[in-house]
Amino acid sequence: MAGRSRMKGLSMKRRRAQTEALDAMDTFLLLLIRLGFSTVYDLLTFMDMSVNATGPRLKRMQKAGLLNSVRGSRNRIAYAITAKGEELLAASLSSGAKEHWRFGKSHTSTTFPRALALAWVHGGTLEALRFITEAAKDFKVDAEDKAERASFLRRRVDALSGEPIFQEREVLIQHLYQWLGAEFKAASARLELQALDDVTSVLKGSRKTLASIEEMRLRWIREKGAAGGV
User: Is pLDDT above 80 for 49?
Assistant: First the structure.
C-alpha cells in the first residue's frame, strides 16, 4: 500500500512538472492546433502569430512528443497533437487561472487576448468576464507604476536642468530619452486600460453574441471533450 502511494505521489509530481513546463503560449498553441490551425501559415494568417513566435515552440513541443508533423499542401508542415499533448493540454486547461492563462504577465495588449481566449475555453463566458475584471487590476497597477516612473524622471530632469553637468550633450540626451520614453509608456498604459474598459463594455453589451459563442463552445466540448479532455 505504501509503495502504491509513493508511486501515485511520484506520478502526480511528474505530471505537475510536465504541466508547469507548458506556459500560456504553449497551451494556446496546442489548443489552436487542436482546433485545426495546424500550420505556421495558419497561425500567421488567421491568428496573427509570427513565425518567430511559433516556429521554435512548435519544434520544441514536437521534440517533447506533444506534436506530430507531416508535409501538407504546398509542402507546408502540418502539426497534429499527440496523446501526450492532449493529456498535457487538458491538464493545463484544468489547472486553474494562476497556472495557465494568468501564467506570466497578462496586462499587455499582446498577451491579454491570448489569456482571455484560454479563460473562455476553460470556463466559458462568465469566467472570461471574471478574468477581464481581474486583468483590469493588473492593467491599473501597471499604468500607475509607469506614470510614477515618468513623474520621477521628469522631476529628475527638472532638478538637473540647472546643473552644469546637464549641459553636456551625452547627459542631456540620456536623461531626455529616459524621461520621454517613460512618458510614452505611461500614456500607452493609460490607453490600454481605457481599451480594456471599452472591450468589457462591448462584451457585456453583446449578450446575444456571447450566448451563441457559449453554445458553440459547449457543443465543441461535447464533441471533443472525450477525446481531448478540454
Answer: yes
Q: Are 112 and 222 in a shared domain? A: yes
Task: Kindly report the pTM of this predicted structure.
Answer: 0.63
Whether residue 103 is predicted with pLDDT greater than 50 in this model: the reply is: no
Distance CA 9, CA 158 (A): 60
User: Is the pLDDT reported for residue 221 higher than 70?
Assistant: no
C-alpha cell at 3: 509503495
From the CB of residue 7, how many other CB atoms can be counted at a distance below 10 Å?
Answer: 10
Residues 119 and 20 in one domain: no
CA distance 230 to 220: 9
Q: Do 122 and 180 fall into the same domain?
A: yes
**Mean residue pLDDT across the chain:** 79
Structural domain ending residue among the three candidates 49, 73, 95: 95
Number of domains in the chain: 2
If asked whether residues 105 and 205 sit together in one domain, one would say yes
Q: What's the mean pLDDT in 97-125?
A: 65
The answer to whether residues 18 and 88 touch, using CB atoms and an 8 Å cutoff, is yes
What count of other Cβ atoms lies within 10 Å of the Cβ of residue 138?
17
CA–CA gap between residue 84 and residue 87 (Å, rounded):
5
Q: Which of 136, 152, 153, 128 is nearest to 189 (CA)?
A: 136
118 lies in the same domain as 209: yes
For residue 53, give its domain range: 1-95
Dist. CA 18–CA 88, nearest whole Å: 7
